[in-house]
Structures are given as C-alpha cells and as structure tokens.
Amino acid sequence: MAKHELLGMVSDPVSSLEIEVISPFSGIIIGRSEIPLVYEGEAVYHIARFEDSKEVAEYLGNFHVDISPDIGDDANDDELAIV
C-alpha cells in the first residue's frame, strides 16, 4: 500500500463520528486486527516498511505462488488443501 492510502474507517457506535485510518507510510500489510472494537492507541494494522517495497511485493508474490498447492490429477476436488 502507498503512503496516505485509506486503509479503513473507525466509527463511533454512539455518535455518527467516523475517522479514516490512513497509512502513515508505504509498505506491506503483514497483519491486521480482526476485533470489531478498537481503543485509542491500539494497532489496527501492522505495516512492514522496506527501502524498496515494490521489490519485496514481487518477491512475496513469487513466494505465494511457490507455496500454493498444485491442483492436478492427484487432487480430490472435494477436499480442501492444507497450506
């Protein structure tokens, strides 16, 4: 993701106040909170920063392809792959 990119919204359940969550820098999201309740100061996203994030994104894309299970003749379509 890019610097200043909109990552999400936090809304107050009591009022109509909504606050944008904006990326403070470019990087790759390596984690995010799945809990629907967020307190001030808590991490909503974990962002990894690199000198060349495009190179890292390309490497991770290749890594994902390398570890993905092949769907071939031996695979049973009714079973889910364990990754």
What do you see in this structure?
It is a single chain. With 83 residues, the chain is an alpha+beta fold. It has one helix and four strands. A two-stranded antiparallel sheet has the order 1-2. It is elongated.
| Biggest β-sheet description | 2 strands, antiparallel
- Runs in which pLDDT lies below 50 for 5 or more consecutive residues are none
* Overall residue-averaged pLDDT value: 78
Strand content: 15-25%
Q: What order do the SSEs take from the amino end to the carboxyl end, as H and E?
A: EEEEH
* Range of helix content: 10-25%
**Number of helices in the DSSP assignment:** 1
Taken from the alpha-carbon principal axes, the silhouette is: elongated
Structural class, from helix and strand content?
Answer: alpha+beta
Number of strands: 4
- With strands numbered from the N-terminus, the spatial order across the biggest sheet is 1-2
Distance between the termini: 25 Å
Using only C-alpha atoms, the radius of gyration works out to 18 Å
Q: Tags for this entry?
A:
single chain; 83 residues; alpha+beta; elongated
Summarize the structure.
With 83 residues, the protein is an alpha+beta fold.
Write the layout of secondary structure elements.
Blueprint: E1 6-11, E2 18-22, E3 28-32, E4 45-48, H1 53-67
Antiparallel strand pairs: 1-2, 3-4
